[in-house]
Amino acid sequence: MEAAARDVGTVEREESGTAATPSRTGVPERLDELLALAPDELERLYAAATVPAIGALRGALRGRMLAVVGTRGRAARALRAFASWDRFPWRGKSFEPLGESRGEGINRVVSDRVRLFRFETSIARSRAGAFDALQLDYDLPENPWIIRRIEDEVRELRPGLWLGQAYLRAFGKPRLVLYFGLEAR
């Protein structure tokens, strides 16, 4: 599986007709390069990534929604175009480590000044496999009910570049709904 993740960028993209331009290791160098990858390719990269230290994610990180799970063809291309638009509402996440085992953060929406939906961070078992990830817990009293059902997690692709999965808990079970990326500015 790790070898597949390293080769993921060399696969021709059916939807766009273009090939990715990965680094020598097959892991993209920049956040915007992740936009070209399909959910199954992002899944392989995610599984091969490493667990970031709480302190590795610090300050205002640039974010991109990368792929919505279950979309293909025109819908996937339209969502990718919307997510890469300079005026896409979600700008990223800001993180503040509070020690080696926990931290906190908040989402930036519309501009870097609008901050919504606080979360707490810790390292725990991933929902995606037998490995750990940085968990973002939105189940906090100040968040709206639907936001409290979101369960994000993040793994490190390379220093300064992270890949995340967003789950929505419905009927007691988390369901993977989208991939997002974060990059140090």
Q: SSE order in H/E notation?
A: HHEHEEEEEEE
How many helical stretches?
3
Q: Which residue ranges are poorly predicted, with pLDDT under 50 across at least 5 consecutive positions?
A: 1-24
In the sheet with the most strands, the strands line up as: 1-2-3-4-5-6-7-8
Task: Give the beta-strand count.
Answer: 8
The assigned CATH architecture of the largest domain is Beta Barrel
Instruction: Report, as a whole number of angstroms, the end-to-end distance.
Output: 30 Å
Strand content: 35-45%
Radius of gyration: 16 Å
Whole-number tally of structural domains: 2
- What kind of sheet is the major sheet? 8 strands, antiparallel, barrel
- The CATH class label of the largest domain is Mainly Beta
Q: Into which percent range does the helicity of residues fall?
A: 10-25%
Instruction: Round the mean pLDDT to the nearest integer and report it.
Output: 87
Structural class: alpha+beta
Rough outline: globular
CATH topology grouping of the largest domain: Lipocalin
Considering the chains and any ligands shown, give keywords for the structure.
about 180 residues, alpha+beta, Lipocalin, 2 domains, eight-stranded antiparallel barrel, about 15% helix
Question: Can you describe what's shown?
Answer:
The protein is α+β, with helices and mostly antiparallel strands. It folds into two domains: 46 residues, no CATH class; 119 residues, Beta Barrel (Lipocalin), CATH 2.40.128. 15% of the residues lie in helices and 39% in strands. The protein contains three helices and eight strands; from the N terminus they run ααβαβββββββ. Strands 1-2-3-4-5-6-7-8 form an eight-stranded antiparallel beta barrel. Strand 2 and strand 3 form a beta hairpin. The protein starts with a helix and ends with a strand. The N terminus is likely disordered.
